[in-house]
Amino acid sequence: MSTPELGLPMAVAAPDLPARVRIYEVGARDGLQNEKATVPTEVKAEFVRRLADSGLTTIEATSFVHPKWVPQLADAEQLFPLVSDLGRSSGVHLPVLVPNERGLDRALALGARHVALFASATESFAKANLNRTVDESLAMFEPVVSRAKADKVHVRSYISMCFGDPWEGPVPIHQVVRVCKALMDMGCDELSLGDTIGVATPGHVQTLLAELNEEGVPTSALGVHFHDTYGQALANTLAALQHGVTTVDASAGGLGGCPYAKSATGNLATEDLVWMLQGLGIDTGVDLARLTATSVWMAERLGRPSPSRTVKALSHKE
User: Fold this and answer.
1) CA angle 66-67-69, nearest 5°?
2) Closest CA to 268 of 283, 285, 248
């Protein structure tokens, strides 16, 4: 008998936390793009559908980055039409990553209504990931955001290296705030603060959020994206929730890292996040048993076990 059938975790609310959290599921994009082997298109489509069946309502489907840079997602044109009906029939949002205007063109041609950019808070990562300076990358994003908003498309921007950089070390908070403000001024609807190499700690998280608020970036426009390199992802998430953040990025089964930052390990596992949120009495709309089964299914196709502690505990797999 699994622990959810025993009524565990027992829901005990903590004070001053949101009643509901939106999970921004990134496993199908951020997770699978880091696989050494290319996952078949039909398996990716089935993965997205199973994630939707578990109750997730925001599932990042794929990336319209040039196949040379992310060959694992070279099938974006083939994949998106296989899942796009979820948006029409089930109200599931299917954001896609677009690096530039060409990527936006490809996404819009297939009917995408939610897109995401990928910015950097540091020069080193901007050079490694975008082959541009931070300011050059912001200039590249400006027409993308302008065109997307003119077409009433929702625009999110990830900001990588918000808490630490493998080349530069600690990242000054004012440096992160500058990039975030520029993206909001551009017209982005939502920002995701990325702890790309997993070095954030709770006090750092709350201080960054407070500084962003002081500079006019509302908490309602912010999401958080933590990696679990040092086991801090859930602690950092709780710190963000205490500040009022209600959007948390996570990856089913803990899939994913970052191909341009070798010290980046997996994302926060969606199952681990859901377990904590259920224990806090916070609504997510997610069926944990279905989600766990989905991650076990995908792990079998990848030929290795899920790193998620909750998946292991609920599926009795080591």
Assistant:
1) 75
2) 248
Interstrand relation of 154-160 and 114-120 (parallel, antiparallel or unpaired): parallel
Q: Summarize pLDDT for 14-60 with one digit per residue, the tens.
A: 999 999 999 999 999 999 998 888 899 999 999 999 999 999 999 99
Look up 162 and say whether it is catalytic. no
Q: For 63, what's the count of Cα atoms within 13 Å in the CB-facing half-sphere?
A: 23
Tokens representing 94 are 């299917």
* 8 Å CB contact between 183 and 223: no
Q: How far apart are CA 157 and CA 90, in angstroms?
A: 25
Among residues 279, 311, 280, the alpha carbon closest in space to that of 298 is found at: 311
Please name the residue that has the structure tokens 């551009």: 186
10 Å Cβ neighbour count for 22?
17
| AA identity, residue 241 | L
CA 315 to mean position of chain CA atoms: 24
Q: How many CB atoms lie within 10 A of CB 33?
A: 23
C-alpha distances (whole Å) from 180 to each of 118, 119, 191, 205 are 12, 9, 7, 15
Which residue in 162, 180, 188, 258 is the catalytic one?
258
Structure-block tokens of residue 283: 């609504």
Exposed, middle or buried: residue 244 (CB in 10 Å: 0-12, 13-18, 19+)?
middle
Encoded amino acid at 259, one letter: P
**Residue 88 DSSP SS3:** helix
Q: What is the pLDDT of residues 148-178, one digit of tens each?
A: 999 999 999 999 999 999 999 999 999 999 9
**SS3 for 93?**
strand
